Structure of Metal-dependent carboxypeptidase:
Amino acid sequence: MTETAAAACEALLSHARETAALEQVAGRLGWDQETMMPRGAAHQRGEEMAAMEGVLHARRTDPRLGDWLDAADPQDAAGKAQLAKIRRGYERAQKVPAALAQEIARVTSVSQGIWAEARSRDDVAAFLPTLAEVVRLKREEGAALAAGGDLYDALLDDYEPGMTGAGIEGMFAALRPRLVSLREKILGSSRVVAPLEGLFTAETQLRLSRRLAAVFGYDFERGRMDLAVHPFCSGSGQDVRITTRVTESDPFNCFYSVIHETGHAAYEQGVDPDYLLTPIGGGVSMGVHESQSRICENQLGRSRAFTAWLHGQMRESFGEFGIAEAEHFYATVNRVAPGYIRTEADEVHYNLHIMLRFDLERALMRGDLAVGDLEAAWNDRFAADFGVKVDRPSNGVLQDVHWSIGLFGYFPTYSLGNLYAGCLHQALRRDLPDLDQDLQAGDLNRANDWLRDGLRRHGGLYAPAETIERACGFAPSAEPLLSYLENKYGGIYGF
Amino acid sequence: MTETAAAACEALLSHARETAALEQVAGRLGWDQETMMPRGAAHQRGEEMAAMEGVLHARRTDPRLGDWLDAADPQDAAGKAQLAKIRRGYERAQKVPAALAQEIARVTSVSQGIWAEARSRDDVAAFLPTLAEVVRLKREEGAALAAGGDLYDALLDDYEPGMTGAGIEGMFAALRPRLVSLREKILGSSRVVAPLEGLFTAETQLRLSRRLAAVFGYDFERGRMDLAVHPFCSGSGQDVRITTRVTESDPFNCFYSVIHETGHAAYEQGVDPDYLLTPIGGGVSMGVHESQSRICENQLGRSRAFTAWLHGQMRESFGEFGIAEAEHFYATVNRVAPGYIRTEADEVHYNLHIMLRFDLERALMRGDLAVGDLEAAWNDRFAADFGVKVDRPSNGVLQDVHWSIGLFGYFPTYSLGNLYAGCLHQALRRDLPDLDQDLQAGDLNRANDWLRDGLRRHGGLYAPAETIERACGFAPSAEPLLSYLENKYGGIYGF
């Protein structure tokens, strides 16, 4: 490498490190907004978010980046990956006008509060003008990014580099028939699994939740857990925070959302510390991120072996709560029922929720669906897919935060994550055939290590699908997830 | 105003608004560090603070500012004040090299943690190398700012525009003899006031503290209260947060630090909303800020009338706690005793604590005192002024956070605030002669309004001393504070 090339690499990395630090600051501002911010600060916060976005946009379009990118010639894999990420960000940022980027930051900061308020009052009309504005801005952004191509693909690529709407269609084509058939078998089964009943004090739920987070590898020295309306994970490196929510009648909601967010957090915390505040220092894509949360929550956390341990923990924490047998508890945890809320959905229905959102948001972005028609479209599709009529907007079109903050193209990465989690789980069981012994003891150390060593530590070193393939030793497909689901639920529902 | 001049004004204000928003973000990062940040995030946080400082420094030295400042010609008082603040910031920032500003941000972010750790272990040696580094950097900054003048004056001017070390010396020359004499009379008095005894549960203290904050005008819709090692107030406009700490054996510590921080917060929250995120949208100086916290804490909060109400509140909250008479309670709240800790000092000793720090930090900045000799100098001076030997560093040189984060020149503004509070109190009593009736009922509304209308709403519109003079109707001096103290303590200690 010439001296000029080395200097350009150094300049790029130093610039990127500062940008990464500022992105962490902006992200923590988002965390604060959801957990700590006083209600009356919404307007000012919008200005703050917009100002940060302006700073970040200016950095991402810094003309020096172009010169450095031309001159740099990194020699090792990490350097090449970092450079590729920087180039990608630079090219993306150049396409979006600064004024638009700032406007999106300002509007989506305020719109989140309007959504939360509308949701709490089940008032769709109060949210629609804001949503229309967000849709308009995101379409404008999509058009700027797509440069004549598909708007939705351009937005999706932000969350899952290299993925397209057509690719998602293909995935759903593979998943849908077997999921629908599995759903029908379960709902037609003579075995009835009753939901959990009783009240479980919030304080004890939170105590056990902290234990669960630690079991799944969450490092509280580099993170913290708070309450929020919507569970999420925020931050990278040394400061990765998770949130949860507590319903006294539904402890599984809290426990499994904590395990889920812990999966995300352990991914961020598990990235090679050498990559701290570099462009490859975080999770590589939303799909791969979701594979980490999902394998923790479902394939491991809802396994027969782990639920046996959790059953014991719950009896210790709450006393006898009406379920004496571990097998009965396992079925209860995995109960399948059509429900309104995506984040509470069982593994069989979950991807049907995503298919609905994918089709609707793609139609919104393509201009095939008007915001004014969104609620009706949601309700029709939900009735068709789930056989249940939406009873109120907070159980329907207002339930998710995503669209309010402009996350169009994000939803399908959840299903992609489920698919990846199926693959990783198959490979994990192959490599640790006696894993159930650990799970029964509430010991996730070997599983956590396997995930960290095979996947998490690489951060953004490899492309998303390559990251999964390297960890698994085979190319990802829908088959492992489908076989896993068919086996598991066949066992529980007896077919 | 010409079109060019108007455009320049608009450009300046828009630029300043974004800078103000980013300063709020950086400030909230500081709040987070003291209240929420996981322990293991210290290194990363240093990088984040440095990156924010880099952004702010670049904005403050933006060469376009110079052109706009040359062209702008604002017509109204607010516009002129905003322009003057921008000019001041621009000129200051140009003097300090960006690398130095970032280095200070990085070092002081990390050094705060090192100080806290050293303080908790009473280990001065563990802190000294860091302090030496901070002193070196601040002297470098002072030299850059002073441009041949006095280093300490240059740093002091950051916190109290227009004030000098000589001015502070003059103030202390007026205060010291009468304070020392008052101290001697009290300590020589035959009346003995015993300290409060008993344990007061933390939860109840915090509940009553929230009540006290509301009474003194804190708007919880635009703020929040959390726990921290060191009570502080952070933020401006719509998001002004306070912290406190709780000691079960010493509820006055919590109550009066909350009233104190509420004074700061109500100042920030009381600024004219038209000035939100402009250069005059916050408190005008640290001295004026401290006048707001001090008048709430002392002249009002520790008055005979208000403590009568607080006495009733405490009996309601904690039951009988050993003090049955309001007059006895009033004396207990105002008990004078030489103590180690500045923030817990009574009104008579408080300014002696500041004099000590002022002399030491001025010597450090001028190079007349080496960091290695600081502890001995502190201990000698403390013994001389307070008649007590420092028993351990956390009660001595390690007690304050200020030096660890580079706040040299800040301490004397506390005494200035006390002096200003004395003036404001005299004027307030003149305008509301029946104020004690309100205070006895725990009703601070008229006092809060008087402070807001006469002072707080102006933000940075007027210079610090002018702000006080306009609110009072007379020029500030030490006399009102000294007469107030002599009258009050003469009454309590009977001379």
Notes: Chain A touches chain B at residues 17-18, 21-22, 24-25, 28-29, 32, 36-45, 47-48, 50-52, 54-55, 219-224, 237-239, 241, 276-277 (CB under 8 Å). Residues 379 and 390 of chain A are 6 Å apart (CA to CA). Residues 165-493 of chain A form a domain with the Neurolysin; domain 3 fold (CATH 1.10.1370.30).
